[in-house]
Inverse folding.
């Protein structure tokens, strides 16, 4: 079910909006990714995204509060766009905000000539069968047989049409892989 009166707009250089986005980033990754456990680190990420990312879109509720953010980085001469990051306020998850942000993102980058969208979804806390084990030498087998132990977001992305295209074992330390997913934009 989609949020009533939700609208998606570009993230402006408005300190109040930036603060709200940082709070969602901190809330969303707390306990899963230590990089954003501190609000100052989350603020730094948002400000860096405003400088480095070609696309920053936010979902606003009917009262104008930020309920989600999606960032995008153009790669491979615009043929590929990376989603970095996608976050949704906890109390509005499972209400269509993430779906709407991805659909908006996909529409924009498709119009810009993109062929593929990709993202990395780390497992730093043992929420999949890829974590806490040595994936070598048969990384492909482990990737093919992945299981979700703890609400890891790869299943959400799969519902949105993304497929797992690779795994980087130990990307975040021993037993902490990054799971790469991609989606074809053009038919």
């Amino acid at each position: 079910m989609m949020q009533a009166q939700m609208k998606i707009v570009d993230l402006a250089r408005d300190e109040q909006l930036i603060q709200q986005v940082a709070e969602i980033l901190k809330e969303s990754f707390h306990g899963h990714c230590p990089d954003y456990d501190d609000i100052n680190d989350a603020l730094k990420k948002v400000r860096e995204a405003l400088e480095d990312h070609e696309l920053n879109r936010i979902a606003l509720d009917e009262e104008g509060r930020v309920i989600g953010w999606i960032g995008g980085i153009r790669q491979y001469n615009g043929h590929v766009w990376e989603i970095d990051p996608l976050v949704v306020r906890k109390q509005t998850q499972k209400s269509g905000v993430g779906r709407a942000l991805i659909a908006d993102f996909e529409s924009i980058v498709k119009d810009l000539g993109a062929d593929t969208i990709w993202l990395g979804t780390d497992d730093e806390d043992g929420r999949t069968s890829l974590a806490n084990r040595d994936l070598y030498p048969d990384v492909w087998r482990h990737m093919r047989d992945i299981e979700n132990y703890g609400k890891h977001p790869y299943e959400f992305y799969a519902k949105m049409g993304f497929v797992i295209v690779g795994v980087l074992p130990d990307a975040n330390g021993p037993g902490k892989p990054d799971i790469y997913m991609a989606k074809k934009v053009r038919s």
Notes: The chain has five helices and seven strands. The longest strand covers residues 66-75. The CA atoms of residues 115 and 186 lie 5 Å apart.
